[in-house]
Structures are given as structure tokens and as C-alpha cells.
Task: inverse folding
């Protein structure tokens, strides 16, 4: 049985095969039996490389942070994670500097960004905060909810999320939609940051 450690764009932590292309950290979420007992422990939600400097971890070691996995960076963004400042330092710097352009303020610290994202992620534990927007205003890399599924916005196309790849596609419609990606991250994408996508997004 797969472990419950894959995160969907809806923010759900599910048990499905595979691990995706990024790993995430939001504190210790599991108990000694490797069962998920909380959806977060800290407000610093990061997305990390799967491999870094030869480090190896035993998945869901008791007392250690819970390894979460995402299909790609866009899915991690939808869940409210940002680039790790250590293993993805160049991506973090790009994200931070684009955030500064987006907000037209001083260069933000990691704590500043995490505090803003923390307000945008959840209504309460396990309940994702969403909002509505016109679909034609959303940048590539955003996620929306449509017909009960999570869809990646990519140019004039929508790609349906699945655990292992993007399989289903449809033409991008118009109108108001429910947005899954937090507003600040949508702003960063609009300001020019390009989310790394799973190879299947290329079709």
C-alpha cells in the first residue's frame, strides 16, 4: 500500500503510487505508525528537490518531518508551497525577486512570504481557501477547479491533474472560475516567474 504523502492541487494529502517531481515539507504530520494526523505543523511550507547533495531519508521516520510529494511545481504552488531556499536556492531567489516586483515593496524575507501564504492557504485545518477570478486573467502555471477536477492553466489549454502525469486536455474556456493557487503566487506567476511543469504538460 502506498503511503499517504502525495499532495493534490486541492491540498488533500492522499495515498497513491508514485512520488512526483518535487518533495515538500510543512513539519511533522505523521505519527509513529506513519499515519497522517495533521495537515501542517509550521507555516513554512516549502517545495524541495528530490535529490540534494547525496542526502538520504527514510520516509516518514518517527519524530522527523513528513516527506510530501507533488506532480510538479505548479501543483506544489496550488497547495501553497514555495521554493526551498537551500536545495532550490536559485529558484527561491527568482521567486523572492519576482514577489518583490509583484508587490512593488521592499525585498521580502522568507518569513514575510510565508506569513502571507499562510493566510491564503486555509480557511481552517484541512479546508483549503479558494477564490473566484476570470479565467482569462490567470497566468500559465495557475490551477483552477472545474467539474470537480483540478486543471492546470497553460496558454489556451487546460490540463487535468492526475497523480502521475497530465493526461486529459481541453480548450481554455472563458468566465469566472474557482482558483486553487493562492493569490500571492498567482501574482508572482503574472509578474514573470515560470513554474516548472511535469514533462507530460508538453504533450
Result:
Amino acid at each position: 500500500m502506498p503511503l499517504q504523502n502525495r499532495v493534490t492541487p486541492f491540498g488533500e494529502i492522499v495515498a497513491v503510487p508514485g512520488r512526483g517531481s518535487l518533495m515538500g515539507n510543512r513539519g511533522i504530520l505523521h505519527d509513529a505508525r506513519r499515519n497522517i494526523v495533521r495537515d501542517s505543523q509550521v507555516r513554512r511550507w516549502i517545495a524541495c528537490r528530490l535529490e540534494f547533495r547525496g542526502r538520504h531519508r527514510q520516509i516518514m521516520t518517527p519524530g522527523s518531518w513528513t516527506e510530501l510529494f507533488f506532480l510538479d511545481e505548479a501543483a506544489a504552488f496550488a497547495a501553497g508551497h514555495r521554493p526551498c531556499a537551500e536545495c532550490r536556492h536559485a529558484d527561491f531567489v527568482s521567486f523572492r525577486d519576482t514577489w518583490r516586483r509583484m508587490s512593488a515593496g521592499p525585498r521580502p524575507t522568507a518569513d514575510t512570504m510565508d506569513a502571507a501564504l499562510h493566510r491564503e492557504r486555509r480557511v481552517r485545518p484541512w479546508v483549503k481557501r479558494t477564490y473566484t477570478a476570470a479565467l482569462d486573467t490567470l497566468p500559465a502555471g495557475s490551477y483552477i477547479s472545474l467539474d470537480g477536477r483540478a486543471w492546470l492553466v497553460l496558454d489556451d489549454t487546460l490540463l487535468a491533474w492526475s497523480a502521475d502525469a497530465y493526461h486529459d486536455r481541453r480548450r481554455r474556456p472563458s468566465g469566472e472560475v474557482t482558483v486553487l493557487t493562492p493569490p500571492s503566487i498567482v501574482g508572482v506567476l503574472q509578474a514573470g516567474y515560470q513554474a516548472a511543469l511535469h514533462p507530460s504538460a508538453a504533450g
Summary: Helices lie at 73-79, 89-103, 110-121, 183-190. The mean pLDDT is 96.
